[in-house]
Amino acid sequence: MNLKLPFLKTDDTLPGGVTRPTWVILDLSGPYPERQPGSPLAALLSRTESVEALAARVQKLRGASWLHGVLVRFGEFTASPASAHAVRGILADLTDEKRVVAYLPQLTMTSLIAASGATELVAPESAEVNLGGFGIESTFLGEFLKKRGVEFENLRVREYKAALTRFSQDHMDDHNREQLQAYLDGLEAAWASDLAAARGVSPEVAAGWISADLTSAQAALAAGVITKVAYEDELVGPASRPFEAVLDLLTPHRPANAKAGRVAVVPLVGAIITGKSRTNPIPLPLLGGPMAGSDTVVAALRRAKQDKTTKAIVLYVNSGGGSALASDLIWREVATSEKPVVVVMGEYAASGGYYVATHARTIVASPYTLTGSIGVVSGKPVLTEFNRRHGLNPERVGRDRALMYSAARPYTDEERDHVEKGILEVYDRFTTRVAEGRNLSKERVNELGRGRIWSGQDALDRGLVDELGDLRTGLARARELAGLPGDAPAWNVTPKNHGPLPQFAQEAAQAARVTVWPFGGERVLTWFDQEIKVR
Fold first, then answer.
1. How many Cβ atoms from other residues are within 10 Å of residue 491's Cβ?
2. Directed axis angle between helix 471-482 and helix 51-62, to 10°?
3. For the ranges 111-125, 300-314, 497-511, which has the lowest average pLDDT?
4. Is 194 buried (19+), middle (13-18) or exposed (0-12) by CB count in 10 A?
5. Coil vs helix vs strand at 318
6. Residue 232 burial by CB count (10 A; 0-12/13-18/19+): exposed, middle or buried?
7. pTM, full prediction
8. CA-CA distance, 236 to 259, in Å (whole number)?
9. Quick one: which of 128, 79, 101 has its CA closest to 198?
10. Calpha distance 201→367 (Å, rounded)
11. DSSP type of residue 402
């Protein structure tokens, strides 16, 4: 196979007789979040390209009649498997129009998911090969905290609900290990399916690549993982240009057909909390990252529901849940919408992130999505011994029940019974929502629940989601449900009167605050611990 492509010379002169570049180089690196940040502060600080922006770039390339092909050059590609799968779909669409070659200096599980959308996969002879499958490592802090005088109350429904166990235990319990292994098995099955389709082999053959002990590009070539071993300069020639250099040659984006109406996209990203959305840059458990405030998400959904030109809504969820109250308030807006709502699940849509989706008209998940975790948890740190060691002496006046969530002492038996009663009530409400929204019996929901997580494919098999896909799939379904044409526009919704300057200042102030418990006064959580990261 001859992969010699025209390349970029040091000068800008095209070869004789060539008036326009025939190949474009498209660089992919970074985490590739699905959407651009919705808040002014996060958007200003963001320096990474999104899947949304990549799709717009590729759409321009598809319409360039003078373009023969695209070299997709993978750099430090750190996207999650779910985002990589969305990139795969974008590149696969591009192959319908152009020749697409993926150049991979690093052959990793996630880079190959994304690159499998191309028809040709090339790696240099010196490529780093890391195809050891997927794994999860979680550090348990129970013993560490106990040695420092900190205990952790952890009340949960039911056995698979592991959100707070890394604070209360010193090891992973059997139920948690079981569900995480099943989730990883689902991811590896999805990986094998994606690579098998791309390389024209059976899923069994593709699955075998994970355990084949491949250590070099030549070994990957011999196994059939890639199509050629070559360095970049062997692939490209003088009529090639970076994407940025051909922007003036690309046809301006044709306005979408807005006459019939449009689709609103509402993001729900990060731990679900009451109040307004915010971002805390401190990378600590419970404290860091984006937080989706119910006030902000509800306001955005209401704006979409009230907008006369909006005919359908897509709620994009990338969240492990959080506050049970906040999750229910967002769920209510979805459940009461007269306009069809489609939920699209990203890397996570677990616990409260699944709760908000139950009454959507359609639920779309990536095969790599972590979802389910239908369960409830409550807890608090107990600093009795810590206070004693450090000479701290909290004194109380008034009713003990009023101070039951204080970290100064553990729950009494009566208080523990009270909390357990409350979380059981929330669990019953949660399973009822799922049963009604998914047309399942409560008995079946309880079998699927108990805090257990599922991969997107396993959730599809069990009726918890409707189909596999990504945001583009969700937009297509929303247009269909609303009777809109396939090119009807989509718009990103922010709350009404979301002015950039006041909001920017407010978010900056919120980001500077550090709280030990980000869920306010709420202790009942539908939350999955997002410190679980797949590698």
1. 15
2. 80
3. 497-511
4. buried
5. strand
6. middle
7. 0.92
8. 44
9. 101
10. 19
11. G
